[in-house]
């Protein structure tokens, strides 16, 4: 499956950064993008959706959003079957290169420092196998 056809969910409370992330994905050819500005909206889209079989190929979420909600990222990811891959971006805890936080045969959760276009492109290519 080409990542250009992926359904992507951006969970970011800062609208400027959310716009930049969406622009980077669009420049990479991705067209199916959904946005959430809070953890509550994220839950509405994934856990409480009126479309219970709506799946996302990739969730990119700000680590601050998870920390503010007091949520364990790995447990949240493992319990959410509507998300195939996850990427947490965190300027303080992330590394220059993507770090795997959780992985099984079909799903991965990664941590990055900055959600810029080169980092996102590299991640998409790694996950698109």
What do these coordinates show?
The protein starts with 6 loop residues before the first strand and ends with a helix. The protein is built from 5 helices and 6 strands, in the order βαβαβααβββα. The model has no long low-confidence stretch (mean pLDDT 91). The chain has a 6-stranded mixed sheet with strand order 2-1-3-4-6-5, with helices on both faces. The chain has helices at residues 15-27, 39-46, 63-69, 73-78, 117-127; strands at residues 7-11, 32-36, 56-62, 83-89, 99-103, 108-112. It has one domain: Rossmann fold, CATH 3.40.50.
Quaternary structure of the protein: single chain
Q: Average pLDDT value?
A: 91
Architecture, CATH level 2?
3-Layer(aba) Sandwich
Strand order of the largest sheet: 2-1-3-4-6-5
Which sequence of SSEs, written as H and E, runs from N to C? EHEHEHHEEEH
Category by helix and strand content: alpha/beta
Number of helices: 5
Number of domains: 1
Uncertain residue ranges: none
As a whole number of angstroms, the C-alpha radius of gyration is: 13 Å
**How many distinct beta strands?**
6
Helix fraction bin: 25-40%
Overall shape: it is globular
Instruction: State the name of the first-level CATH class.
Output: Alpha Beta
Tell me the span between the first and last alpha carbons. Answer: 8 Å
Strand content bin: 25-35%
The CATH homologous superfamily: Response regulator
